[in-house]
């Protein structure tokens, strides 16, 4: 079972739709829980953040020296001819402004286009306005 699926399954009354954005699902979970009077915001938020990180690591690897994982990640952000070394991959990704929750959401759909932002400010506006905050 994937980490995000396991997190949402903990809330047995919640219907998790794996094809929707994790952030959309979490917001829906919070709304439904409030209506039920069955919600610990801090615990749920920490669990969600942990699940996001675990999902990223499961989908794209926690090993920063795994060349195959770098190639997978780069393909998901639209780089069709990735470099042949990890060092070159790291250089290539520097200066790219992408939302990591979007990247997690794209794990099951290699055709999903990941939006690239011109700078950190644009990425920040997008991230905060949509609640797509990835833990640091």
Polypeptide structure, described:
With 136 residues, the chain is mainly α. It has a domain of 92 residues. The protein contains seven helices and no strands. Helix 1 packs antiparallel against helix 3 and helix 4 runs parallel beside helix 5. The longest helix has 20 residues. The radius of gyration is 16 Å and the shape is elongated.
Spans where pLDDT lies below 50 across 5 or more residues: none
- In DSSP terms (H or I, runs of 4 or more residues), the helix count works out at 7
Q: Name the overall outline.
A: elongated
Helix % is: 55-70%
* Ends distance: 24 Å
Percent of sequence in beta strands:
under 5%
Order of helices and strands: HHHHHHH
Counting helices, strands and paired strands, the structural category is mainly alpha
Rg from C-alpha positions? 16 Å
Tell me the major beta sheet.
none
| Overall pLDDT score | 93
Strands, count: 0
Provide a concise account of the structure shown:
This protein is mainly alpha-helical and 136 residues long. Helices cover 57% and strands 0% of the residues.
Give the topology.
Blueprint: H1 3-10, H2 22-36, H3 41-60, H4 67-76, H5 86-93, H6 100-105, H7 120-130
Helix pairs in contact: 1-3, 4-5
Supply database-style keywords.
136 residues, mainly alpha
């Amino acid at each position: 079972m994937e980490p995000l699926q396991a997190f949402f399954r903990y809330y047995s009354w919640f219907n998790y739709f794996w094809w929707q954005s994790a952030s959309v699902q979490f917001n829906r979970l919070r709304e439904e829980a409030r209506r039920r009077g069955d919600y610990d915001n801090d615990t749920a938020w920490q669990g969600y953040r942990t699940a996001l990180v675990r999902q990223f690591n499961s989908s794209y690897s926690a090993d920063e020296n795994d060349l195959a994982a770098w190639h997978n990640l780069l393909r998901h952000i639209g780089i069709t001819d990735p470099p042949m070394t990890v060092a070159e991959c790291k250089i290539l990704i520097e200066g790219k402004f992408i939302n990591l929750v979007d990247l997690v959401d794209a794990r099951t759909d290699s055709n999903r286009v990941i939006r690239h932002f011109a700078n950190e400010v644009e990425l920040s506006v997008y991230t905060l306005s949509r609640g797509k905050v990835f833990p640091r």
